[in-house]
Amino acid sequence: MHILRFDFGVLEKDFELYGQRNGAAWTIALVPRTESQRRTIGRITVSGETATVRQIELRRSARQRIEISIDPPRPAAVFTAEELKRFFR
Q1: Do the beta carbons of residue 19 and residue 34 sit within 8 Å?
Q2: Cα–Cα distance for residue pair 13/6, rounded to 1 Å
Q3: Does the reported pTM lie above 0.85?
Q4: I need a surface site. Which of 27, 59, 67, 78 has the fewest CB within 10 A?
Q5: Rounded to whole angstroms, how far apart are CA atoms 16 and 26?
Q6: pLDDT, tens digit, for every residue of 4-57?
Q7: CB-based contacts of 30: which residues, under 8 Å, 6+ apart?
């Protein structure tokens, strides 16, 4: 949760923090300070644009990673009265 809140004061206790900015786009890399955290978590990279997070990557090795992409929200679906009655109770 500290990562999503960008609570750098708390994060810097456990991670080395690196950042880069290119216009509105930005990237923050968090490298665990201890070897046990590096083996467990690996490096965390968060990237986005302006105030929006677009991607989170957890990389434990060159071949092992988890990548989470966050797309912009879509407009709400519009349902007919019949669909509302049939599918939503």
Answers
A1: no
A2: 13
A3: no
A4: 78
A5: 17
A6: 677 888 888 889 999 999 999 999 999 999 988 888 888 999 999 998 899 999
A7: 3, 11, 15, 16, 17, 18, 43, 44, 45, 46
Radius of gyration of the chain (CA): 19
DSSP 76: P
Q: Give me the residues paired with residue 17 across strands.
A: 30
Closest CA to 41 of 71, 11, 70, 80: 11
Q: How many CB atoms lie within 10 A of CB 18?
A: 12
CB-based burial of residue 30 (10 Å sphere; 0-12 exposed, 13-18 middle, 19+ buried)? buried
Q: Tell me how far apart the alpha carbons of residues 60 and 44 are, in angstroms, rounded to a whole number.
A: 9
Tokens of 42: 């690996």
